[in-house]
Amino acid sequence: MKKKIVLAYSGGLDTSCCIRWLQKKGFEVICFSAHLGSEFSPAQVRKKALATGAKKIYIKDLRKEFVSDYILPALKANAVYEHKYVLSTALGRPLIGKHLVDVAHQEGAKFVSHGCTGKGNDQVRIEVTVKTLDPKLEIVAPLREWHLTSRESEIEYAKEEKIPIAATKEKIYSIDKNIWGVSIEAGILEDLKNSPREDAYLFTKSAKKAPNKPQVVRIGFKKGVPVTLNGNKKDLLTMIEALNRIGGTHGVGRTDMVEDRTVGIKSREIYEAPAAWILLAAHRELEQLVLDKDLIAFKELVSLRYSHLAYAGLWFSHLKQSLDAFIERTQKKVTGEVALELYKGNITVAGRKSPYALYKKELATYGAKDMFNRADAKGFINIFAMPYIKS
Ligand code: ARG
Questions:
Q1: Among 27, 294, 341, 382, which residue carries the largest CB count within 10 Å?
Q2: CB contact set of 219 (below 8 Å; sequence gap of 6+)
Q3: Assigned fold of 3-62+84-176
Q4: Strand-by-strand arrangement of the 232-233 sheet
Q5: Torsion-angle region of residue 232: left (phi > 0), alpha (psi -120 to 50) or beta?
Q6: 186-353 domain in CATH 3.90.1260.10?
Q7: Ligand 1, residues 10, 89, 174: which to mutate, most atoms within 8 A of Cβ?
């Protein structure tokens, strides 16, 4: 009897070649495909996997779980990697890994596989998840083993093996898309002196071509969870989809970065993530209004650490889970509404309110109704300066 293997399948060139390569290694290939909002429809993915020779395919629409268990905690944490990456791809990998393990258990398979490159972060994220959740499963990573070392050679292989593919040699970017953002790399982007060409972006407009009129969006939060858009109740998935459309129209959410991969190299990647940047801006703004200064400063340290854990795929680690517990406690009063103006690639704050606002106009004002006792300031400064007085 053939050995069963469950392959995390996207429908792209890499994983299509993986099906055939694994078959040739004597495996019975069962595909699992997670729908997180990629550019391929589930029906296309199913057709392609079966046409390529998969015995069976599981397709799971995991968008809701992605939003509630991955995106939302990352938003509450204000998790952004190296200032520019909202972790869209990174957050999806532990979820894919978790369901890959589930399908393997369901199928009684002892092997799992993925189509991640041997020099990227995604192999680390998926495998560390698999190892954390079931260390007995054996992992086969074709891209670390096979002779196909370039995209061109994979296309040749696909042709020889009559694997149906959409990729052409001209389509040079490597793209990963989900509802939290799009990651785009390779091709001319590998040369750091090139600025990205417009054709690299999937759905955001260039700021130059964005409307000349700004648009205001109001995001309402309850305990750190975005619950209303412009005053209307929305589930978070719908809100993210709407904000991607609106923000994309205004050229919001593009970043271009040189990032530090977990495997030690620096790589160039561009991202588009309008909804993520809008929600992060609104969330941060509201926290700034309702949290005290010690909590804000400490949470920033947590946020930095959190982004590195998420980037490295250590999502199911004890540390990351403990930080979640801390973060959840900080969100008790993160309730209120923030208005943001979107204009030619920029997000600016256009208003904020909360029943828990710590801002007190009677203390901050320079007007006549000032309640701040200036006389107290003198004694405060005397004592505050004491440790720094040079002898
Ligand atoms: N650099 C990003 C990360 O490590 C995205 C990786 C996948 N990128 C891609 N264009 N396929 O999370």
A1: 27
A2: 226, 228, 229, 239, 278, 279, 282, 337, 338, 339, 340
A3: Rossmann fold (3.40.50)
A4: 232-233, 225-229, 215-222, 336-343, 346-353
A5: beta
A6: yes
A7: 89
